[in-house]
Amino acid sequence: MSSYETLRHFADSYGLAIMVVTFVTLCAWPFRPGARKHNRAAANSIFEGQDDGE
Q: How far apart are CA 5 and CA 11, in angstroms?
């Protein structure tokens, strides 16, 4: 069996499963318990240090 066929078999079976698990994990990551404070800080970080006269 050539290395191409071995890699293709891996990508068709386990590679797809790994990509799906990674995708679901990354999509669910911001909604984990306790993440609200970190998400809010990240969203407001672009406004820190701005002095626009208000």
A: 10
| Position 54, amino acid | E
pLDDT band at 9 (very low <50, low <70, confident <90, very high): confident
Widest pairwise Cα distance in the chain: 70
b/e code 28-47 from CB counts within 10 Å (16+ = b): eeeeeeeeeeeeeeeeeeee
Q: Outline where 1-54 has alpha helix (H).
A: 3-10, 16-28, 36-44
pLDDT in tens, 15-41: 888 989 999 999 999 999 999 999 999
CA distance 26 to 30: 8
